[in-house]
Structures are given as structure tokens and as C-alpha cells.
């Protein structure tokens, strides 16, 4: 099965790694994406010695050599997954969030894993949550593989944006349906008129993209604003990829990272692809090389 995330041509894929158990699995995803579109891969790790708070006991203090060793392991793993990809590493001296945001300014895709921090009340972790609001390029937050089930889900704004195009391309590559949701606001006047207007905006937006990806089966869903939280959580549990624009206010991002982590008896939450405001998507390659499926 094809991989599904579009990457801006010639710009590298950037992946942030940490030293938690299974933390290097995210490298497989990033390397797969870099190989699919023929761009370099940059692996970034932030050394916690400057920003993480130094333990008093010398034996517990983080050593930069540990960070370099982690990057060496990540580089070897990436080259094993994608032998033809140019891999570079960086041991950042600034905080993880600052380093990743800095790299996002010259990247086509930024890839992070979620890191559960129960004290924050969400399952993304402080770094991913902060980067989600400030990344300059599309951000993929990996919350677990979904086993190749369910549709790609996109939240549409009613305008032709890179978000809709990214979702259509993802569904086309995965060979699955696209579920497109659009929200209309109740209580702002004539609800019937507002609903019809919202439906027409969604129809026009999807029709434009459908001309480029005619193979994608689209299921449209028009929501009232009161239905959004339930729908977002359901899409996170039943979809294979959730695509959304970050928006200038970021309220949808906050809703996404406050969705509770799946329990062992539930299906994992699907990956999220967030598109920043103003991302043009110009020059997105139409690569046809099959890659390892990670979702």
C-alpha cells in the first residue's frame, strides 16, 4: 500500500526523536515518506542538558554523548528502512520545541510521535502540543498504527486549501474513501439558510479537488458546531488518518490533543496531519513508488 502524506518538493522531511522506549519507531515513518518523494531526511534530537534541568547527582546528568549515540542509532535505522535516502542528524542545543519549529521553516513535513503526559490532561506531550500551534510546515503526529482500516477524514473550511488537496491525495494513495466534514454555526440567524450556504461551500470545495483525484469516493458530513467534539473523537478512533487545517485560532488543535489516549481494549487513535495557515502545497510531487504502510 502506498504511503499517504504529501511532502513539499525538495524540502526535507524532519523527524524529532527522543530516548523513550520505542521512540525510534517514528524514524521508520519519516524515512518512508522521505523515500517516497525522493527528499533528504533530517533527524533531530534536543540534548536536555541545557533546558531539561540538571540533576544534582553527577551520574544522573544527561551526557551529550548519549544524544549522539541515539542519533547514530536513528540514522542506522533510517538507512535500513530507506537505503537510498540522504540522512543527516542534528543534536540541538536549544529546547526540543524551539529546534523543531526552527527546522520546520525549511521542511516539507515535520514528523513527531505523541508522548503521553497525564499531568497535562492530553496524550500528545508538551513538545508536540506546542509545535502543533507553531510549525511552519505540515505536521504529522503519529498516535499509533490503525491497521489500514477506515477512511481518511478531513475537516474542510469551505475554501480551496492545501488541507483538502492533502486529504484527497492521501485517500487516493491509500485506496480508501474520504470522509469530509464541514461545520456550520447554529444560532447566528436563519439556520436553514446558513446550513444550505455551508453545504454549497463544501460542495464547491470538494468538487474542485475531485477533478484532480476522480478515483476518490467522498462521503460528505455537514455538522453543527455542537457536534464537533464527538465527531472529532469518533474520527480519531475510526479513521486511518485525520487531516485538518491548523487555523489561526488553533481551537481544533486543542480539541485534538485533549482527546484521551486509547485504553488497551480500544483501537489506537489515528495519526493527525495538521496543515498550517497559508501552506500553498505548490509543487507537491506525484510520486508513484510504493512505500511501507505505517497506518
UniProtKB/TrEMBL annotation:
Transmembrane segments: none annotated. Pfam families: Usp. InterPro entries: Rossmann-like_a/b/a_fold, UspA. SUPFAM superfamilies: Adenine nucleotide alpha hydrolases-like. It comes from Actinoplanes italicus. Signal peptide: none annotated. Gene3D superfamilies: HUPs. Residues 13-143 form the UspA domain. This is Nucleotide-binding universal stress UspA family protein.
